[in-house]
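> forwarded from #structure-qc
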């Protein structure tokens, strides 16, 4: 792809300076400014969106664009097809090329996340929007083959002699499959699934993309057309066909699979994805037992197991706990990787009976857990006791025994460290939420510990 000339770079440098000024707050002035820039971009969208210096400026411009201006930009991008990139050999249109580009992926990600806001604007909410059809058309591109087609007569004759490719084979050669495992496109796919589900991903000021750094359950919801839900169902159904048992060990496909769990429209859809990832769909313990053991020892795959414990159904929680963690906590609670599964299991406990099972097995292990500095387990267990209102006096007794005569509040705050421990501070915060009779003695001791800290 041809590089950007010096004059264009100078133009974008000036644009960036203009964007930093406070003179574009007027809506009419802002609209005129964006329109002028989009006119300059016309026909060169792909080239400029993939340029390292130009792409951040374009991202900010599009954040200021209104509904019609976004339609103008995306329509122009669609109308300017390009040759397939030789680097990855993917048969792409301009939209899809941005998915796989280190600079362009940020722009397409921000656009996707911006579309629901524009659809819900007061001017567009009551009428059919072209943005809806544009986004759906983009999604349809994902189901096309990622393999470049040779149009020679020889190739055509060869294809005629072969049987038609099955639907499964087509999916494995699709752009969607390539997106799932690509370092750049996987981030765009995650944003696409969240947007189709009506989950809003916040952006930084100026439109620059912000990584998803909080739980999806805490992100705000927004209205989206019914067609988005149907498209999301098609994407999830395709993911169920993929080799999710391998995805959980892939650096880029693993987060995609986690988001798929979060956006599943029903417990049944969610369970089908989880079963495929754990090989539970095989109904053969000789297949799925080793898979779980591999996951328990792999730090990357562990993130998926944590997601299932925290977001899966109660039935799945019980199956995983009963079959893999129960009566094995003495090993897994201090394991360098599997201890994260124990913590997630605690976080995912939804009833007092579930927590009691965990507590009865973990309380006697507090000494080993403390010695191995797996403080996250202690923190999660304390928080769960506060959340489910059970085992509160028991856990304070366990901490008192662990302190061996030391002031319990000071012991928890420092956890044998010279500085205040973040885990210890969180443990005390959870104890403050206990029932008054359970927390009273600890609160009284805290006064003598906290007051000197505040005076310093």
């Amino acid at each position: 792809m041809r590089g950007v000339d010096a004059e264009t770079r100078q133009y974008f440098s000036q644009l960036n300076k203009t964007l930093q000024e406070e003179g574009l707050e007027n809506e009419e002035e802002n609209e005129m400014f964006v329109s002028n820039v989009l006119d300059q971009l016309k026909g060169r969208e792909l080239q400029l969106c993939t340029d390292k210096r130009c792409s951040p400026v374009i991202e900010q411009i599009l954040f200021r664009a209104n509904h019609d201006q976004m339609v103008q930009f995306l329509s122009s991008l669609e109308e300017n097809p390009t040759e397939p990139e030789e680097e990855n050999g993917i048969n792409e249109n301009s939209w899809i090329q941005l998915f796989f580009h280190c600079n362009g992926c940020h722009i397409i990600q921000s656009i996707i996340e911006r579309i629901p806001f524009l659809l819900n604007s007061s001017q567009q909410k009551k009428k059919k929007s072209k943005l809806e059809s544009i986004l759906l058309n983009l999604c349809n591109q994902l189901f096309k083959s990622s393999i470049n087609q040779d149009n020679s007569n020889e190739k055509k004759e060869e294809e005629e002699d072969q049987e038609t490719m099955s639907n499964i084979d087509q999916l494995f050669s699709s752009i969607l499959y390539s997106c799932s495992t690509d370092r750049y496109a996987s981030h765009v796919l995650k944003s696409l699934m969240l947007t189709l589900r009506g989950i809003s991903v916040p952006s930084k000021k100026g439109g620059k993309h912000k990584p998803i750094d909080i739980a999806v359950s805490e992100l705000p919801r927004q209205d989206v057309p019914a067609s988005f839900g149907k498209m999301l169902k098609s994407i999830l159904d395709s993911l169920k066909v993929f080799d999710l048992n391998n995805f959980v060990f892939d650096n880029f496909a693993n987060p995609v699979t986690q988001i798929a769990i979060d956006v599943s429209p029903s417990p049944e859809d969610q369970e089908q994805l989880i079963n495929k990832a754990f090989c539970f769909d095989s109904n053969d313990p000789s297949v799925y037992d080793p898979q779980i053991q591999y996951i328990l020892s792999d730090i990357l795959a562990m993130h998926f197991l944590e997601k299932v414990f925290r977001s899966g159904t109660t039935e799945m929680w019980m199956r995983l706990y009963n079959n893999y963690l129960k009566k094995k906590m003495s090993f897994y609670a201090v394991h360098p990787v599997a201890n994260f599964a124990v913590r997630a299991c605690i976080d995912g406990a939804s009833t007092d009976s579930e927590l009691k099972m965990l507590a009865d097995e973990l309380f006697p292990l507090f000494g080993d857990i403390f010695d191995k500095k797996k403080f996250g387990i202690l923190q999660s267990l304390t928080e769960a006791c506060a959340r489910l209102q059970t085992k509160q006096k028991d856990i304070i007794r366990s901490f008192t025994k662990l302190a061996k005569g030391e002031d319990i509040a000071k012991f928890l705050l420092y956890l044998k460290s010279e500085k205040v421990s973040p885990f210890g501070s969180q443990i005390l915060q959870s104890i403050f939420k206990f029932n008054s009779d359970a927390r009273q003695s600890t609160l009284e001791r805290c006064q003598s510990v906290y007051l000197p800290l505040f005076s310093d």
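QC bot note: Residues 436-455 form the longest helix (20 residues). Confidence is low (pLDDT under 50) at residues 83-91, 149-154, 160-165.
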